[in-house]
Design a protein that fits this description.
Layout (H helix, E strand, L loop, with lengths): L5 E6 L4 H4 L1 H14 L2 E5 L14 H11 L4 E5 L3 E3 L16 E4 L10 E5 L2 H11 L17 H8 L5 E4 L15 E3 L9 H18 L9 H22 L5
Parallel strand pairs: 1-2, 1-3, 5-7
Antiparallel strand pairs: 3-6, 4-8, 5-6
Protein name: Nucleotide-diphospho-sugar transferase domain-containing protein
InterPro entries: Nucleotide-diphossugar_trans (IPR029044)
Length: 244
Amino acid sequence: MTNDNILIFSIALNGYQIRYRRHLASQRRYAERMGYDYTVITKPWVTNLGAECCWLKLYLLRSALSAGYDYVLFVDADAYIQDSCPNLSSVIKPDKFLFMANGYSGRLNSGVMLMKACPEALLWLDSIINAITEPVVDIESVGWGENGHVIHFAKNCDGLELLNEKWNNTKSPQCSDYIRHYNYGPMKNSVVDRLFHKLIFKLSKLLLHCNLNNKSEMPLKLKTVKERIPILFHRVISEYKHFS
């Protein structure tokens, strides 16, 4: 595992560029300290997917792993990497290709995903991408985004290594964590953040032309996502060199 072949990236669209600039700065500092490549996707400024643009991470993970990186770490824009965070080599196991931690719900949280470049990893990502229009069962669903699909396809994945919550702390303010993730859970207790996310979700409903609270509309929403994400993906990779 060499530093020259590791990429860390985040996606900060639809206002996340401004709201989480401090978190993004912490990610860049960590990458610089470790000698990793780092990039954050901030263009286009606004997408016609709203919060559902999170599906883009799967496409970019696949692209970066195919572009020559040995390992790629995706980190959500609202995740702060502490100065104490160790080298990624401390969690790598040679027989695993997917490294994730459970979130506050007790299920895998896709806000921090470390992946190894190998055929198995690419096949795993393809299996999720190809199943976008297929809703997952309620016990795996989180109601929006790709996390439910990640939970579903990781369930019987031999390549998964479950990380300590320090690597994606979504629930414990007292934890001596490495990555503190202020997602829509116990860690997000800021009134500003909660209002910001409610606005983003309402915008997503309008942009996707369906009522996301109505389960009968779920296939329609996922169909719309599948149609729009590749367009966004091709726009992004034309702007950011790390993915081609």
